[in-house]
Design brief:
- The chain is mostly helical.
- The protein is built from 17 helices and no strands.
- It has helices at residues 5-23, 31-60, 63-95, 118-124, 130-136, 139-156, 161-182, 185-205, 209-235, 239-256, 259-272, 278-291, 294-310, 317-330, 340-351, 359-363, 366-391.
- α3 (63-95) runs antiparallel to α17 (366-391), α11 runs parallel beside α17 (366-391) and α13 packs antiparallel against α17 (366-391).
Length: 407
């Protein structure tokens, strides 16, 4: 009997956890397998996002339609992120993760990274050199480039037919490459998870177990309640079908801790398993990999209260509102790569005058937390694609049997 790829990934994940916990440090030797898988995924991202987004925008037919789709997408992402940070704060109060924690903070000074103002951030979206944007993998600038090219193709009409066919063919080739790369996923997941478990172990996890539990519970609660309600009420889709269909991408997201790195798999699952049109998926998902940070917002809420409790600071109601607004706004433009949550956390801590040195308290478990929050981010991207597609009547029943989930 042939075992499907999703089962292979899950088995590899379990084996990696067991060997990482019991064998320990020697399991770091398998890390190159995980790095190879990440490199394979990363090399797909730029040509896949560019080609699929150009084709998707050109297929919308008019800038007006594109604006409508974009408005719905951004509104959904901001709304769910707002709910996510509130859930994080609520669980922070409920779990009180900083109470009784006795950890020595490193004397190392954490300085707030330089951040741009709103105007500079918006201007930075426009690439001065589109080829540099492609070379650097700047997703926001690539999205801008693709949208501009797609709109221009629509305005030009038939004369742009050869350009449309080129990008359409390139997108199909990249989808096929994604499928090939995914056959290496079980080995890659093993190589990513085993060293993480071996490196951190129980000695690091136990003192901060309440932080991990609060973030994990928040992520599961947000996914199971908010996303389930969204796809059921706004797309009339069974939540069970939704989670089963997106589970391969969620597993890869958990393993890689990278929304951008998971993007090729998310695009494939959303179109093939959930029936979202290429036009919607190719616009909503790349945008979500950059601006949708629901899992990270949950983490921000828990982490801020943890650090406040550790230092004996009490956040006022105004301080809590500041945390909510800062976390939501900081999510826009934050890179969908491992560790980006710590950068956001420095902004949130600064907004309520909490010591940046508090980051050292949870830096040791950030990779563990990153896996949870990235998984939620990716599932949230998929839920947005389903909701927007349903509102645009671009959601169909996949031809394949939903019992067999494509990965």
């Amino acid at each position: 009997m042939r075992i499907n790829l999703l089962t292979q990934i899950l088995v590899a994940f379990v084996i990696a956890v067991i060997l990482g916990a019991f064998v320990g440090e020697p399991m770091v030797v398998v890390k190159p397998l995980g790095d190879l898988f990440l490199n394979l995924i990363k090399f797909i991202i730029v040509p896949l996002v560019l080609s699929s987004l150009v084709v998707g925008v050109a297929s919308t037919g008019s800038p007006k339609t594109l604006g409508r789709i974009g408005g719905k997408t951004v509104a959904y992402y901001l709304a769910t992120t707002l709910v996510a940070v509130v859930i994080g704060l609520a669980l922070g109060f409920l779990f009180a993760p900083g109470a009784g924690v006795d950890i020595q903070v490193s004397g190392e000074k954490f300085e707030q990274p330089e951040t741009k103002g709103v105007v500079e951030t918006l201007l930075a979206i426009v690439p001065t050199n589109p080829f540099a944007a492609l070379a650097e993998g700047n997703i926001l600038q690539i999205i801008f480039l693709a949208i501009f090219v797609g709109v221009a193709m629509t305005l030009v009409g038939e004369k742009a037919g050869s350009v449309h066919r080129f990008f359409d063919s390139l997108a199909e080739v990249m989808y096929k490459i994604t499928g090939i790369v995914m056959h290496f996923a079980p080995v890659g997941v093993f190589g990513l998870i085993a060293p993480v478990v071996a490196e951190h172990g129980l000695s690091v996890l136990l003192p901060l177990i309440k932080v991990i539990l609060a973030v994990a519970v928040g992520c599961m609660l947000h996914a199971c309640v908010i996303y389930s309600l969204a796809v059921k009420s706004m797309a009339n889709m069974s939540p069970l079908r939704f989670f089963k269909a997106i589970s391969p991408a969620a597993t890869i997201a958990f393993s890689t801790a990278s929304s951008s790195g998971t993007l090729p798999v998310t695009l494939k699952n959303t179109q093939e398993n959930l029936g979202v049109s290429n036009k919607i998926a190719s616009f909503v998902l790349p945008l979500g990999a950059t601006v949708n940070m629901d899992g990270t917002a949950i983490y921000q809420g828990v982490a801020v209260l943890f650090i406040a409790e550790y230092y004996g600071s009490e956040l006022t109601f105004a301080g809590l509102i500041t945390v909510v607004l800062t976390a939501v706004l900081a999510s826009i433009g934050t890179a969908g790569v491992p560790g980006a949550g710590l950068i956001m956390l420095t902004l949130v801590l600064s907004s309520v005058n909490l010591p940046l040195e508090g980051i050292a308290l949870i830096a040791g478990i950030d990779r563990i937390l990153d896996m949870f929050r990235t998984c939620v981010n990716v599932v949230g991207d998929a839920s947005a694609a389903v909701v927007v597609a349903a509102s645009e009547k671009e959601l169909t029943t996949p031809q394949q049997d939903t019992a067999t989930v494509a990965v």
